[in-house]
Amino acid sequence: MDFVKEWLQAGQMTVSRLLLQHYHRLGLTTEELVFWLELNSYSQQGETFPDLDQIARQMGLSQAQVFKLLEQVVAKEVLQIVTAQDSQGRQTDSYDFSPLYEKLTTILQADAAQAEVTSKEDQVSHLYQIFEQEFGRPLSPLEYERIAGWLDEDHYDPELVRLALKEAVTHQARSLSYIDRILLNWESKNIKTKEAVTNEQARRKMALLQKEAEVSQGAGTAEDQQLPPITLHNPFKED
User: Fold this and answer.
1) For residue 16, which of 111, 107, 115, 101 has the smallest C-alpha distance?
2) What's the gap between Cα 47 and its chain centre?
3) C-alpha angle with apex 160: 154 to 162, nearest 5 degrees?
4) Three-state secondary structure string covering the chain
5) Model-level pTM greater than 0.90?
6) How many CB atoms lie within 10 A of CB 22?
């Protein structure tokens, strides 16, 4: 018998790694997961309501055990039995697997939201540390409160506050009032991201270089006007 041919004819089933990684968080046992996957594999082959006796034989379980598994996965809301009626009035049953995907999506969304909260908390904690490093001392309670106000009340991104601090340090102005003016100036120009700050700094640098070039050119012209006129007389030629 050609087992390779039989293997290929049996078809393939795709299982997301997310399901394998998180099925315990859905409240499923390993046996319940295998049962759910067995039903799903038949569904992928077009059998929407397979014979449970056949699944029992494949899993090495009794009929009563398989029916118990069916009750459990339905109770855990990862599978739903749907009854539909066709145009001739005949009722047909099928399995709906979408409840599992919906529950898994909810879990993953909650994970992503928590990760974002944790990331922001880490950013804020790191921001306070940077301020203390740049100021060379611990922050006072009022300073903590003012920085927190930028984040919680004014809703400035922690990265934007860090860049404002960096700008202030560049100008030798380690002052929260100076940093506040920088943030207000950026806000008036709708500067809210690191990229926007970089572009604004590049624009200011270009404007400064252009101004210096104009001043230098003007100074050179005035100096040229102060030079004595060049004579065309040849001192070695007799008059």
Assistant:
1) 101
2) 39
3) 110
4) CCHHHHHHHCCCCCCCHHHHHHHHHHCCCHHHHHHHHHHHHHHHCCCCCCCHHHHHHHHCCCHHHHHHHHHHHHHCCCCEEEEEECCCCCEEEEEECHHHHHHHHHHHHHHHHHHHHHHHHHHHHHHHHHHHHHHCCCCCHHHHHHHHHHHHCCCCCHHHHHHHHHHHHHCCCCCHHHHHHHHHHHHHCCCCCHHHHHHHHHHHHHHHHHHHHHHHHHHHHHHHHHCCCCCCCCCCCCC
5) no
6) 16
Residue-wise pLDDT tens digits, 27-70: 999 999 999 999 999 998 889 999 999 999 999 999 999 999 99
**What domains are defined for the chain?**
13-96 (1.10.10.10), 117-217 (1.10.10.630)
pLDDT tens for each residue of 110-145: 999 999 999 989 999 999 999 999 999 999 999 999
> Given the structure tokens 């922690």, which residue do they identify?
158
Is the distance from CB of 67 to CB of 53 less than 8 angstroms? no
